[in-house]
Amino acid sequence: MTSTPIAKQARITAITSGKGGVGKTFVSANLAAAFAQRGEKVLVLDADLGLANLDVVLNLVPKITLHHVFTGQHTLAEATLPAPGGFSVLLAGSGMVEYSRLTPEVRDKLIEVVETVKPMYDRVLLDTGAGISDVVLYTVSLADEVLVVATPEPTSLTDAYATIKVLATTQGRRHIRMVCNQAGRPGEGRGICKQLQAVVDRYVNPGLDSPLQLEFVGELPSDGSVRDAVLRRELLMEAYPGSAAAQAVVALAAKMG
Question: Fewest beta carbons within 10 Å, which of 1, 67, 98, 144?
């Protein structure tokens, strides 16, 4: 008796952060380009449904967005666009107040979209909103793994800790990956991850059935070429592939495997 082969499913990574402005969408887009360079078929889903800005980062003007898919006006295939960098994107419409709350309809549509794209790609990146709203937490719950983006700023670290704590206690996450953006000096990101792990060990892990481990997967240096690329609405990986930050993104993709 021959067994039916199991269809390949994409690895789904939620890229999230405790606060806005830490470069989460920048990381999502450039990491997607780095995965594509490695020969993977990649989709980035703009899951920041109310305050979408992936289109701005990629300099795309979408005529069809997730809103049109959710409302049945267009198909998922029609809404999927090729992006610079060799990957695909599903963009959300910005300023859609109806998507700022997790209604049963939003919940159903999100899971339907994710389940539909899973067999079509090697990797799906969910560029979530910032913070711990129910929409963000539900989006993260659909992922196989979580990558938290933080910067060395104290407010970013406080909010990253809050996010990590909520994911550990409400979703049973016991392994969360972390990348430090805008690191001022080599090794700063690893130090920050160790600091956060120490706080988690002290205040979160004693209440869990098994300890939460943070995995430091890389740091992106503070680099003038990042600002230039963002202002030009170009991917760093395409505009300045030789820059220190672009090389760090390549290393991050390799580390994430």
Answer: 1
Write down all domains in the chain, each with its CATH number in brackets.
11-256 (3.40.50.300)
Q: Do strands 213-221 and 42-47 pair parallel, antiparallel, or not at all (unpaired)?
A: unpaired
Task: Give the integer Cα–Cα distance in Å for 205 and 196.
Answer: 12
Give SS3 for 149: strand
Q: How far is CA 128 from CA 35, 139, 207, 213, 241, in A?
A: 19, 7, 27, 21, 25
- How many angstroms from the chain centroid is the CA of residue 177? 11
CB atoms within 10 A of CB 71: 11
Q: Give residue 5's pLDDT band: very low, low, confident or very high (50, 70, 90).
A: low
Would strands 123-130 and 42-47 be described as parallel, antiparallel, or unpaired? parallel
* Owner of token pair 């919940």: 107
Three-class SS state of 12: strand
How far does the chain reach from its first CA to its final CA, in angstroms? 35
DSSP bridge partners of 45: 90, 126
* pLDDT mean across residues, the chain: 92
**Is it the case that residue 1 has pLDDT exceeding 60?**
no
How many helices (H) and strands (E) the chain has is answered by 11, 8
pTM of the model: 0.94
CA distance 50 to 32: 22
Q: What 3-state DSSP class applies to 85?
A: coil
What CA–CA distance (Å, rounded) separates 245 from 129? 23
